[in-house]
Design a protein that fits this description.
11 helices, 364 residues, six-stranded mixed sheet, 25% helix
Length: 364
């Protein structure tokens, strides 16, 4: 099981000099809007052992439309990852994973370069009036340095306003999984198509959605008579085969989460805004399922939330009133003051015992 015990974010997006210690199996990342919760999840993804520019691109694009439609160029998304209050462009993230130091450093500078228009992608050329000669543009030139224990990687990179993600080489295989689930991942579709490829995943996912409706018996993918496109179905005891599209977002969200748990087996799962699309009346059952499934699959999970009810629901999974020893939850509260981000880490038991004293400070 991959276990990240410590995270240090020296420079990344709006975060400077943030240290989070004593991380556990289930980590709740809470705090006010714009305090850096999602940035913490992105920083963790930069610690993938594959490292490399392809991974940076993937994270840079993550905040774009859920339908994959990019409003910005990859260069603009890339540059936005650097803190804006610093003259030097650098991202510096480190930590402790499986008792080994791990670090990612991306640094460099912006400059003006000349591009030969003949070397540009055709889709770019169609948007230009003059397609002959040279073109001046802004670019970033720098290096990526990654280390994990004795493993070290270095890569020189250049990114410009006409760079394309397609064709960027992947830099090796990760030594442990890191899976990210966005707040609206379930709206992308193709949820069941991913699940039915693995019988073990399918069984776990069925148990999850049966918390919503015990009469759901199976899930499958059929080809549509129109256009031969795949259509996802749930088999219902009374209603027969029903398209997944006829069900609410809650079932789709839980399907996505349960599949993500199975996909991140032995690794790290990052869930952004877990409460999205799940009604609070299901919190107890769904959160209990998620925590137990993560334990079964040896998954360390990081969860962000804006909801005080969701925090309470996740704390309830530990049953502090009846058991006095075990505690899988750490609550990390982020707070921004004077251009600095601070963290407070408390055990779930401490937060539950002092719930009234903390009040909304747990969330804010």
């Amino acid at each position: 099981m991959a276990m990240i015990k410590e995270l240090n974010i020296n420079h990344f997006r709006g975060i400077n000099e943030l240290t989070i210690n004593s991380l556990g199996s289930v980590n709740l990342i809470v705090g006010d809007n714009n305090c850096g919760k999602t940035s913490v999840l992105e920083a963790l993804q930069l610690l993938r052992t594959s490292g490399g520019l392809a991974n940076v691109y993937r994270i840079a694009k993550q905040r774009e439309s859920i339908f994959g439609m990019s409003a910005n160029s990859i260069y603009e998304n890339f540059i936005c990852m650097f803190p804006r209050d610093r003259q030097e462009l650098s991202i510096d993230i480190s930590g402790i994973c499986n008792r080994r130091p791990i670090s990612f450093v991306l640094q460099g500078k912006q400059k003006e370069i000349l591009l030969d228009t003949k070397e540009l992608d055709r889709s770019v050329l169609r948007q230009m009036e003059d397609t002959d000669g040279e073109l001046g543009t802004e670019a970033f030139e720098g290096t990526i340095a990654f280390s994990y224990g004795e493993l070290e990687k270095h890569e020189k990179i250049e990114v410009n306003r006409y760079s394309r993600v397609s064709g960027t080489p992947m830099n090796g295989k990760d030594e442990f999984n890191i899976v990210y689930v966005s707040p609206f991942e379930h709206l992308r579709g193709n949820v069941i198509s991913l699940i039915v490829k693995n019988d073990g995943y399918k069984e776990i996912c069925l148990k999850a959605i049966q918390l919503f409706d015990s009469e759901i018996e199976d899930m499958m993918v059929f080809r549509s008579d129109i256009g031969n496109r795949p259509v996802e179905y749930l088999k219902h005891k009374r209603l027969g085969n029903m398209p997944l599209s006829t069900y609410g977002d809650g079932i789709k969200k839980v399907l996505m989460l349960s599949n993500a748990i199975a996909m991140s087996a032995g690794g790290v799962l990052l869930i952004d805004e877990i409460e999205t699309a799940i009604h609070k009346k299901y919190y107890d059952d769904i959160f209990q399922f998620i925590v137990k499934a993560c334990k079964t699959f040896d998954v360390q999970v990081f969860i962000t939330t804006h909801s005080l009810e969701a925090i309470d629901g996740l704390l309830e999974t530990q049953d502090y009133g009846h058991q006095k020893a075990e505690d899988s939850i750490q609550v990390v509260t982020l707070k921004r003051e004077d251009n600095r981000t601070y963290s407070r880490v408390l055990s779930g038991r401490e937060v539950a015992a002092n719930r009234e004293a903390f009040g909304f400070e747990v969330r804010l």
